[in-house]
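hi!! sorry for the late reply, been swamped w classes. u asked for the two structures so here they r. pasted raw, havent cleaned anything up. first the sequence of the first protein and right below it the tokens
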Amino acid sequence: MAGLLSPSVMCADLLNLNDEIKKLDSLGVEYLHIDFMDNKFVPNITFDTNMVRSFKKPMKNIKRDIHIMAFEPEKFFDAMEIGEGDMVSFHYEASDDAHAVIAELIKRNAKPCIAISPDTPVEVVKDFLDEVYAVLLMTVYPGFAGQPMAPGSMERLSELREIIDKSGKDVLIEVDGHVSWDHCEEMRERGADIFVAGSSSVYGKDYPLDEAVPRFYSLVK
């Protein structure tokens, strides 16, 4: 399977979001990465649940990739109208019963994903590989864009890929954090499938979006 792209809406042109989403849709982008924060699990706030819900309106083929950085993630599902086609990540570190959260996402016909922060051992995902669509590997600390990559992230990616491959499960790996032009090819080689791209690649200053997206795909094919 070729690499999949999930541009971060935090880095998009927020004054022209509808047009931006339509442009990504026309470029064949699979997902739109939407960060939701509660100012508790991480000390920041991005889009509220109304905004997360509103992103559905201009979408044609592109799907929501919702990254919930919040305690008790399940309490936000109704307000976000989580449903079929949505890929939803929640943090292992933020839930008292991750299995129950996954079960609720499956009930809603969403694609459940479990996210792990840089300080969390990758081995924790072993308990969830029968249930999740993907593992979201944070290569920066959750909460803020534009950070440098956390030390050891590439090695953690390789380790995670090995764990999943040995399990025999068809689970994808999504990488989030400093997914740059310099790093995306190595991330792909080490086993990443879905790329959360932002200011260090598709939303950088080097290329307009309609050139940056095809270029990114060429590197992670």
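now the second protein. again sequence first, tokens right under
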Amino acid sequence: MIMVSQRRQRGFSLIELALGLVIVATLLAGLLVPLATQVEQRRWDETRRLLEDAREALLAFAAVNARLPCPATATSNGAEAPAGGGACSLQAGFLPAATLGMSGVDAQGYLSDPFGLVDSAGANSNRIRYAVRSSVDASFAVGAIANPLTTTGSISGVSPLPAGKVSLQSIAGSDGYLSVCAFTRAAAADTSCTGSGNYALANGNAVAVVFSLGPNGPAPASFSADELENTGDHLTAATGKLYFVSRPRDSAGTDQFDDQIVWISPSTLLARMIAAGTLP
């Protein structure tokens, strides 16, 4: 009689299965972390490109219109307020992307960075911000002329200087514009980039500033002191935003910083307007 032996088939035990799942999860986590880092870096690079595009659009606008546009407000649908410039409704508000004719705006006409959250109405929470030195706070004038940067025809290269105009030399030599500091001022009342080790990247000579609030823009409760320096009195007509912070990205602790900022100097503005023939 031939005996047929049957081989018992053995499956995976629960312990072996759990161990396998742990290994797979570990491998996936190792792949996902670099992927997330790559995605954020692409968004960071895209934001930088948007800011540079916005800066170029502002200079092109000035070359054509002999002035910079006013900021957009929360209710102007991406258009400068008021239309036609002059005395701006805000010194610091949103980039007037609709007035500049920029592409990629949201449903309300504002340009936003890729870190924002889009609501049901198509509005993005991370709209690009913009400030231009104006006389909103009634303390700024060049050559006794208010709002020279945002009023068409206020700047002149003609000599002798016509009445009611500001000379190129006065615009270039003024130091009462916006400042960009290495980090927040020691006290809100300070009139310069004060504090131990602080210094000015633009010492009262940035006629306009364009910036993004970065990845934590939709959550202002998490802003560090340096980030609050950029947004503390924004979107308020009664105050003039003069100081901004630009420093390397840092996600450590409570001193994080992920804003990105570009600015325009008086010489850059005048050079573009002269090259375009807007100014003689």
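hope this helps!! also noticed smth abt the second:
Residues 14-65 form the longest helix (52 residues).
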